[in-house]
Specification:
The structure is a single chain. The protein is mostly helical and 254 residues long. Among the domains are: 71 residues; 89 residues, no CATH class. 80% of the residues lie in helices and 0% in strands. Helix 1 runs antiparallel to helix 3 and helix 5 runs parallel beside helix 9. The longest helix has 30 residues.
């Protein structure tokens, strides 16, 4: 079990660390060897960024490998499809947010939604769901499991929305340059503040709520399966074993 996880950690994780170290040490080590013109060249200046990007890519590949090793054949189809549909919906909504022309608010968050959903789809597409026979053997989900998972999802929505609202709440000077803001009188400042707060409460806050429904949905599917009943041993096996034992006892007594 340990070797199964240690092999990708050793090779992919080790390669990511080595590439990152090379990128960080390249500039100080190469400075004495290169001229000032060469150091200011695009190729040389881009090496730290490129190596950091490669290291992040290797770590993401490592995450895919570990998740696949851990969950292949273990995720019931009912939850696998739910997570898959959620990330696909995130991709579609992210694209719509980036190409709509009604408001700047969806555009601000659309790229994050598209990026997260795309990475999630790449990760999830490498996980093999459980077989159809395994799904048939699972007991149906109960109302209690749905309620527990729903409560967990609501908590996630509330926490993420509150955090996002606190971080993005409008503050003085409300998008106006500070030098210009200082020239306004109190009435003008109050008008701008009222408009900014109203825009945030009526447009941005509802969008943040919708935005956070996607991670909350994934939490719902995960928690639902955590509290789901597991497959029980078939009684036929026990009956067969008991019948064999009884037959042996009869033979011994005879």
């Amino acid at each position: 079990m340990t070797n199964k996880y240690m092999t990708p950690i050793k090779w992919l994780g080790g390669a990511a660390v080595i590439v990152l170290i090379i990128g960080q040490l390249f500039v100080p080590l190469s400075s004495p060897l290169l001229s000032e013109e060469a150091r200011n060249g695009v190729l040389v200046r881009s090496i730290p960024f490129v190596t950091a990007f490669i290291a992040i890519l290797l770590l993401f590949i490592l995450l895919i490998a570990l998740v696949a090793l851990r969950f292949n054949g273990k995720i019931p189809g009912r939850s696998y499809r739910g997570v898959e549909y959620t990330v696909v919906a995130g991709i579609i909504l992210g694209v719509v947010c980036l190409f709509q022309s009604w408001s700047i608010v969806p555009y601000r968050y659309g790229f994050l939604l598209l990026l997260g959903s795309t990475l999630g789809f790449i990760l999830w597409s490498h996980v093999v769901p459980a077989s159809a026979k395994t799904d048939d053997d699972l007991p149906p989900l109960t109302s209690k499991q749905h309620v527990i998972a729903g409560i967990a999802a609501l908590i996630v929505v509330a926490v993420l929305t509150w955090s996002a609202a606190s971080a993005n709440a409008p503050v003085e000077p409300y998008g106006v340059r500070q030098r210009v803001w200082d020239t306004y009188d109190d009435a003008r400042k109050a008008e701008i503040a009222t408009a900014a707060i109203s825009q945030f409460n009526n447009v941005e806050l509802p969008f943040l709520l919708v935005f956070n429904l996607f991670p909350a949905s994934i939490v719902y599917f995960v928690v639902r399966e955590v509290f789901a009943e597991r497959r029980k041993e078939k009684p036929a096996l026990k009956t067969s074993h008991a019948t064999s034992s009884e037959a042996i006892d009869i033979l011994l007594k005879s």
